[in-house]
Amino acid sequence: MSEAVARPQDLIETALRAADAAARELMIRADRPAAGVGTKSSDTDLVSDADRAAEDAITAILDAERPDDGRLAEEGGLRTGASGLWWVIDPLDGTTNYLWGIPHWAVSIAVCDDDGPLASVVMHPPGGDTFIALRGGGAWLGNRRLEMPVPPPLAQALIGTGFNYSSDERARQADVLRWALPRIRDVRRFGAAALDIAWVAAGRLDAFLERGVQEWDWMAGRLLVTEAGGVVRELGATAERPAGVAVGRAELLDAVLALFEGGRDG
Length: 266
Known about the structure:
The chain is α+β, with helices and mostly antiparallel strands and 266 residues long. It is 35% helix and 26% strand.
Protein backbone atom coordinates (compact mmCIF):
# COMPACT_ATOMS: atom_id res chain seq x y z
CA MET A 1 0.00 0.00 0.00
CA SER A 2 1.35 3.40 -0.97
CA GLU A 3 2.10 6.21 1.46
CA ALA A 4 -0.82 8.21 -0.01
CA VAL A 5 -3.21 5.33 0.65
CA ALA A 6 -2.08 5.19 4.29
CA ARG A 7 -3.04 8.82 5.00
CA PRO A 8 -6.70 8.97 6.07
CA GLN A 9 -6.56 12.78 6.26
CA ASP A 10 -5.77 12.95 2.55
CA LEU A 11 -8.68 10.65 1.85
CA ILE A 12 -11.16 12.70 3.86
CA GLU A 13 -10.03 15.87 2.13
CA THR A 14 -10.61 14.26 -1.26
CA ALA A 15 -14.02 13.03 -0.08
CA LEU A 16 -14.94 16.52 1.09
CA ARG A 17 -13.93 18.09 -2.20
CA ALA A 18 -15.93 15.48 -4.10
CA ALA A 19 -19.01 15.88 -1.91
CA ASP A 20 -18.82 19.66 -2.20
CA ALA A 21 -18.61 19.44 -6.00
CA ALA A 22 -21.69 17.21 -6.05
CA ALA A 23 -23.52 19.52 -3.66
CA ARG A 24 -22.92 22.51 -5.92
CA GLU A 25 -24.39 20.65 -8.89
CA LEU A 26 -27.41 19.62 -6.87
CA MET A 27 -28.09 23.04 -5.36
CA ILE A 28 -27.90 24.68 -8.80
CA ARG A 29 -30.62 22.31 -10.05
CA ALA A 30 -32.73 22.19 -6.90
CA ASP A 31 -35.05 25.05 -7.91
CA ARG A 32 -35.29 24.11 -11.58
CA PRO A 33 -37.86 21.82 -13.18
CA ALA A 34 -36.74 18.21 -12.95
CA ALA A 35 -34.97 16.89 -16.04
CA GLY A 36 -34.12 13.44 -17.33
CA VAL A 37 -36.26 11.65 -14.76
CA GLY A 38 -36.40 7.88 -15.18
CA THR A 39 -37.00 4.77 -13.11
CA LYS A 40 -34.75 1.95 -11.91
CA SER A 41 -35.92 -0.99 -9.81
CA SER A 42 -39.60 0.02 -9.88
CA ASP A 43 -41.90 2.81 -11.02
CA THR A 44 -41.31 4.59 -7.70
CA ASP A 45 -37.49 4.27 -7.71
CA LEU A 46 -36.41 7.43 -9.50
CA VAL A 47 -33.22 8.80 -11.04
CA SER A 48 -32.69 12.19 -12.67
CA ASP A 49 -30.13 14.31 -14.46
CA ALA A 50 -29.30 15.82 -11.06
CA ASP A 51 -28.17 12.40 -9.77
CA ARG A 52 -26.04 11.90 -12.86
CA ALA A 53 -24.47 15.38 -12.74
CA ALA A 54 -23.62 14.97 -9.06
CA GLU A 55 -22.00 11.59 -9.67
CA ASP A 56 -20.04 13.00 -12.63
CA ALA A 57 -18.73 15.78 -10.36
CA ILE A 58 -17.57 13.21 -7.81
CA THR A 59 -15.94 10.89 -10.32
CA ALA A 60 -14.11 13.78 -12.01
CA ILE A 61 -12.34 14.53 -8.73
CA LEU A 62 -11.60 10.87 -8.06
CA ASP A 63 -10.26 10.43 -11.60
CA ALA A 64 -7.87 13.31 -10.99
CA GLU A 65 -6.84 12.55 -7.40
CA ARG A 66 -7.36 8.79 -6.92
CA PRO A 67 -7.14 7.18 -10.37
CA ASP A 68 -5.99 3.78 -9.08
CA ASP A 69 -8.84 3.30 -6.63
CA GLY A 70 -11.93 1.21 -7.30
CA ARG A 71 -15.50 2.50 -7.07
CA LEU A 72 -19.01 1.38 -6.31
CA ALA A 73 -21.44 4.11 -7.30
CA GLU A 74 -25.22 4.07 -7.39
CA GLU A 75 -25.52 5.29 -10.96
CA GLY A 76 -22.17 4.21 -12.38
CA GLY A 77 -21.90 0.73 -10.94
CA LEU A 78 -18.66 -1.06 -10.04
CA ARG A 79 -15.19 -0.16 -11.29
CA THR A 80 -12.21 -2.21 -10.17
CA GLY A 81 -8.96 -0.59 -9.05
CA ALA A 82 -5.36 -1.51 -8.26
CA SER A 83 -4.72 0.37 -5.00
CA GLY A 84 -6.64 -1.80 -2.55
CA LEU A 85 -9.07 1.05 -1.85
CA TRP A 86 -12.51 1.67 -3.28
CA TRP A 87 -15.05 4.46 -3.00
CA VAL A 88 -18.70 3.81 -2.22
CA ILE A 89 -20.74 6.69 -3.62
CA ASP A 90 -24.35 7.83 -3.45
CA PRO A 91 -24.38 11.16 -5.29
CA LEU A 92 -27.95 11.95 -4.23
CA ASP A 93 -29.54 9.93 -1.47
CA GLY A 94 -33.19 10.92 -1.27
CA THR A 95 -33.90 11.54 -4.95
CA THR A 96 -37.67 11.56 -4.46
CA ASN A 97 -37.38 14.17 -1.71
CA TYR A 98 -35.10 16.22 -3.95
CA LEU A 99 -37.47 16.10 -6.92
CA TRP A 100 -40.46 17.11 -4.77
CA GLY A 101 -38.56 19.98 -3.13
CA ILE A 102 -38.33 18.32 0.29
CA PRO A 103 -34.99 19.37 1.83
CA HIS A 104 -34.02 15.98 3.26
CA TRP A 105 -31.40 14.59 0.91
CA ALA A 106 -27.65 14.11 1.04
CA VAL A 107 -24.42 13.27 -0.72
CA SER A 108 -22.78 10.16 0.76
CA ILE A 109 -19.17 9.10 0.12
CA ALA A 110 -17.02 6.49 1.86
CA VAL A 111 -13.55 5.18 1.01
CA CYS A 112 -12.91 1.60 2.10
CA ASP A 113 -10.25 -1.05 2.41
CA ASP A 114 -10.65 -4.74 3.23
CA ASP A 115 -11.53 -3.88 6.83
CA GLY A 116 -14.36 -1.51 5.90
CA PRO A 117 -14.62 2.28 5.64
CA LEU A 118 -11.51 4.34 6.37
CA ALA A 119 -13.07 7.76 5.93
CA SER A 120 -16.54 9.00 5.12
CA VAL A 121 -18.61 12.09 4.45
CA VAL A 122 -22.36 12.62 4.55
CA MET A 123 -23.19 16.14 3.37
CA HIS A 124 -26.63 17.73 3.76
CA PRO A 125 -26.50 20.79 1.50
CA PRO A 126 -29.99 22.18 2.30
CA GLY A 127 -29.23 22.26 6.02
CA GLY A 128 -25.53 23.05 5.85
CA ASP A 129 -24.51 19.99 7.86
CA THR A 130 -21.38 18.01 6.97
CA PHE A 131 -20.77 14.80 8.89
CA ILE A 132 -17.30 13.24 8.65
CA ALA A 133 -15.65 10.21 10.18
CA LEU A 134 -12.14 8.76 10.22
CA ARG A 135 -11.39 5.24 11.36
CA GLY A 136 -9.91 5.66 14.81
CA GLY A 137 -10.29 9.43 14.56
CA GLY A 138 -13.89 9.89 15.59
CA ALA A 139 -17.08 11.14 13.99
CA TRP A 140 -17.70 14.85 13.65
CA LEU A 141 -20.41 17.35 12.78
CA GLY A 142 -18.48 20.49 12.04
CA ASN A 143 -16.27 21.06 15.07
CA ARG A 144 -18.39 18.90 17.37
CA ARG A 145 -17.22 15.38 18.04
CA LEU A 146 -20.17 13.02 17.97
CA GLU A 147 -20.78 10.67 20.88
CA MET A 148 -24.06 8.81 20.82
CA PRO A 149 -25.93 9.27 24.11
CA VAL A 150 -27.00 6.42 26.34
CA PRO A 151 -30.24 5.31 24.67
CA PRO A 152 -33.66 5.38 26.31
CA PRO A 153 -35.69 2.24 26.98
CA LEU A 154 -37.38 0.79 23.92
CA ALA A 155 -40.76 2.25 24.90
CA GLN A 156 -39.27 5.77 24.77
CA ALA A 157 -37.09 5.31 21.66
CA LEU A 158 -37.50 7.34 18.47
CA ILE A 159 -36.76 4.99 15.56
CA GLY A 160 -35.96 5.88 11.97
CA THR A 161 -36.88 3.58 9.12
CA GLY A 162 -37.63 3.53 5.40
CA PHE A 163 -39.99 1.84 3.00
CA ASN A 164 -38.89 -0.38 0.16
CA TYR A 165 -39.75 0.20 -3.50
CA SER A 166 -41.28 -3.29 -3.76
CA SER A 167 -45.02 -3.27 -3.05
CA ASP A 168 -44.81 -6.68 -1.37
CA GLU A 169 -42.08 -5.52 1.00
CA ARG A 170 -43.99 -2.31 1.73
CA ALA A 171 -46.98 -4.40 2.79
CA ARG A 172 -44.78 -6.42 5.15
CA GLN A 173 -43.29 -3.22 6.57
CA ALA A 174 -46.79 -1.86 7.20
CA ASP A 175 -47.64 -4.99 9.17
CA VAL A 176 -44.47 -4.57 11.25
CA LEU A 177 -45.31 -0.94 12.01
CA ARG A 178 -48.81 -1.89 13.17
CA TRP A 179 -47.17 -4.10 15.80
CA ALA A 180 -44.23 -1.83 16.67
CA LEU A 181 -45.78 1.63 16.95
CA PRO A 182 -47.64 1.05 20.23
CA ARG A 183 -44.41 -0.25 21.79
CA ILE A 184 -42.04 2.69 21.07
CA ARG A 185 -42.13 6.47 21.31
CA ASP A 186 -42.61 6.90 17.55
CA VAL A 187 -41.22 6.26 14.08
CA ARG A 188 -39.71 8.75 11.66
CA ARG A 189 -39.56 8.01 7.93
CA PHE A 190 -37.62 10.79 6.17
CA GLY A 191 -36.64 9.07 2.92
CA ALA A 192 -32.83 9.37 2.85
CA ALA A 193 -31.09 6.51 4.65
CA ALA A 194 -27.58 8.02 4.51
CA LEU A 195 -28.74 11.15 6.30
CA ASP A 196 -30.95 9.22 8.72
CA ILE A 197 -27.97 7.08 9.77
CA ALA A 198 -25.85 10.21 10.23
CA TRP A 199 -28.62 11.53 12.47
CA VAL A 200 -28.36 8.40 14.62
CA ALA A 201 -24.66 9.16 15.07
CA ALA A 202 -25.60 12.71 16.06
CA GLY A 203 -28.26 11.57 18.56
CA ARG A 204 -31.20 12.91 16.54
CA LEU A 205 -32.63 9.39 16.22
CA ASP A 206 -32.13 6.58 18.71
CA ALA A 207 -31.82 3.86 16.05
CA PHE A 208 -32.48 3.23 12.37
CA LEU A 209 -33.29 0.11 10.40
CA GLU A 210 -34.37 -0.56 6.85
CA ARG A 211 -34.49 -3.45 4.40
CA GLY A 212 -33.80 -2.91 0.71
CA VAL A 213 -30.96 -0.43 1.16
CA GLN A 214 -27.71 -0.82 -0.77
CA GLU A 215 -24.10 -0.36 0.34
CA TRP A 216 -23.98 3.18 -1.06
CA ASP A 217 -26.93 4.10 1.19
CA TRP A 218 -25.23 3.14 4.46
CA MET A 219 -21.46 2.65 4.07
CA ALA A 220 -20.52 6.24 4.95
CA GLY A 221 -22.98 6.19 7.84
CA ARG A 222 -21.51 2.92 9.10
CA LEU A 223 -18.27 4.67 10.03
CA LEU A 224 -20.09 7.66 11.52
CA VAL A 225 -22.08 5.40 13.82
CA THR A 226 -19.23 3.14 14.91
CA GLU A 227 -16.92 6.08 15.58
CA ALA A 228 -19.68 7.74 17.61
CA GLY A 229 -20.02 4.68 19.85
CA GLY A 230 -22.74 2.69 18.09
CA VAL A 231 -22.95 -0.58 16.21
CA VAL A 232 -24.04 -1.53 12.71
CA ARG A 233 -25.73 -4.84 11.99
CA GLU A 234 -26.35 -6.11 8.50
CA LEU A 235 -29.67 -7.89 8.02
CA GLY A 236 -29.33 -10.86 5.73
CA ALA A 237 -31.68 -11.41 2.82
CA THR A 238 -34.32 -14.12 3.14
CA ALA A 239 -36.46 -15.90 0.59
CA GLU A 240 -39.09 -13.17 1.00
CA ARG A 241 -37.20 -10.10 2.17
CA PRO A 242 -34.23 -8.08 0.86
CA ALA A 243 -31.09 -7.46 2.87
CA GLY A 244 -30.91 -4.45 5.13
CA VAL A 245 -29.07 -2.66 7.89
CA ALA A 246 -29.74 -1.58 11.47
CA VAL A 247 -27.74 0.98 13.48
CA GLY A 248 -27.80 2.31 17.02
CA ARG A 249 -26.29 1.85 20.45
CA ALA A 250 -25.88 -1.84 21.27
CA GLU A 251 -27.92 -1.47 24.47
CA LEU A 252 -31.01 -0.56 22.42
CA LEU A 253 -30.46 -2.25 19.08
CA ASP A 254 -31.11 -5.80 20.26
CA ALA A 255 -34.55 -4.77 21.49
CA VAL A 256 -35.28 -2.82 18.31
CA LEU A 257 -34.38 -5.80 16.15
CA ALA A 258 -36.44 -8.17 18.29
CA LEU A 259 -39.44 -5.87 17.89
CA PHE A 260 -39.13 -5.01 14.19
CA GLU A 261 -37.62 -8.25 12.92
CA GLY A 262 -38.98 -10.80 15.38
CA GLY A 263 -42.51 -9.46 15.88
CA ARG A 264 -42.22 -9.56 19.66
CA ASP A 265 -41.35 -7.26 22.51
CA GLY A 266 -37.63 -6.64 23.07
